[in-house]
Amino acid sequence: MSRTTTKPFYAILNVLEHAPTKEITKAYRLLALKYHPDKTGGSEEMMKRINEAYGCLKDPVKRKVYDRTGSVEGAENDVGGVIDEQDILEFEQHYRGSSLEEDDVIDFVTRFEGNVTKLFDYIPLSREEELEDHKRLLKFAKKYIDRHGTERMKKNFQMSSKKLKVKKKKSSSNAGTSLEDLTAQIKANQARRAKHTMKQVSAK
Asked: Where does this protein have compositionally biased stretches of type Basic residues (predicted)?
């Protein structure tokens, strides 16, 4: 039985509107096990609804838009006030070091066959001048490639990661990234995720 909520995505996953991301992920996995089309009694239509709900609620920015409006329409294309500095700070807090960031690193190294030369251009809010970002992102990449990578991926990673150097920090007069640039990074990330989710749903 669904918990009391006025927003369908929360009702579909049977979680409260203030549920933490871990609880939402747990609920999604349980429902996926129950309704996956390959399972006895599974439902392709229900699985699509579950994927749609989870795709929104696991993303901090999309979830905030959904909580405000009850819809995710325009969340990826409307720059005019949908994403502000507070949204970016919250996204950064939830995203950096998370499974979402790790998934994006895996997507990148898979797409570029282990070549991490442009990794920092792909991962939102990553900083080439920060040693900790280098360590974290390369650790995600190496972990996946060691377990699942082809010999070509391993060779490409070994060569390109050696060339990936920590850049010098910018002077204070040039430091920082504009709100427009950060917004563009987040929205590009959302678009990639939406496209990836649709491919997964279509393949099932």
From this structure: 162-171
Rg (CA), the chain: 19
CA separation for the pair 8, 70 (Å, rounded): 8
Helices and strands of the chain, counted as H and E runs: 10, 0
Considering the domain architecture, whether residues 14 and 48 belong to the same structural domain is answered as: yes
pLDDT exceeds cutoff 50 at 176:
no
**Tally of domains in the chain:** 3
Q: Report the C-alpha gap between 201 and 47 in whole angstroms.
A: 8
Are 35 and 43 in contact by the 8 Å Cβ rule? The answer is: yes
Query: Are 2 and 68 contained in the same domain?
Result: yes
Q: Using one digit for the tens of pLDDT, what is the confidence trace for 86-117?
A: 767 777 788 889 888 998 899 899 989 999 99
Using CA atoms, how far residue 30 sits from 24, 27, 36, 66, 180, in Å, is 10, 5, 10, 23, 38
What CATH number did the domain enclosing 53 receive? 1.10.287.110
Domain residue limits at 125: 96-173
Helix (H/G/I), strand (E/B), else coil: 16: coil
Structural domain includes residue 104: yes
> What is the length of the chain?
204
Q: Give CA 204 to chain center in angstroms.
A: 21
